[in-house]
Amino acid sequence: MRIALASDHAGFELKEHVKAQLAAAGHDIVDVGPETDDSVDYPTFAAPAARLVADGNADRGVLVCGSGVGVSIVANKVPGIRAVNAHDVEEAQLARQHNDVNVVTLSGRRIDGQQADAIVAAFLSEDFEGGRHSRRVAAIEDLP
Question: Can 17 be counted among the known catalytic residues?
Answer without folding.
Answer: no
